[in-house]
Amino acid sequence: GNSVTQMEGPVTLSEEAFLTINCTYTATGYPSLFWYVQYPGEGLQLLLKATKADDKGSNKGFEATYRKETTSFHLEKGSVQVSDSAVYFCALAGPSNTGNQFYFGTGTSLTVIP
Amino acid sequence: EAQVTQNPRYLITVTGKKLTVTCSQNMNHEYMSWYRQDPGLGLRQIYYSMNVEVTDKGDVPEGYKVSRKEKRNFPLILESPSPNQTSLYFCASSLLRGRNSPLHFGNGTRLTVT
Predict the structure, then answer these.
(1) Do B33 and A49 touch (CB under 8 A)?
(2) pLDDT tens digit string along A99-111?
(3) Average pLDDT value for residue range B93-104
């Protein structure tokens, strides 16, 4: 079956530090992969996506590369800001007989301190 | 503006008193879904719908009902709420076809059942 595993938090970093949040997946077929971000008191927003192997998704300085050989989609940012403090969710969308079905990781809370 | 709108944002109720959380999207999406978010458990799918009059159970459907009479609306109904349904609920929608289609989320409904 399909599933997503992401590193547990919480993660606390100083401003301008390098960020990595690990995400690995199990899937049948060829899923699309996503990172969502949830700011305090808000719903989840799409951060970036990749739809096939070796694709790199990027947005707002965040990047993630779809690695089929390691079944991973790690999120990275070179220099985090206080405004990046949020919960990050890795997700996959796998085709099924009736359309896409989404699977989410448990989320990783990030706090960036000045 | 393309959006998913949930109401209410906050709801406090007592055990056994029927309630409905509304969800509406203006993007003409076929797929709609309800999730609950609990600490340490991430997002769990309650019910989803592939189109009008087509609904199916997700991972945690017990105690919930849904209906899809119109494409834009997907209300979540708790016929007899219990304290274990205290949670943060999210409605989401997406285009059905194509693995590139991300989920769009509402801002959430925080439900407390006493």
Answers:
(1) no
(2) 557 889 999 999 9
(3) 77
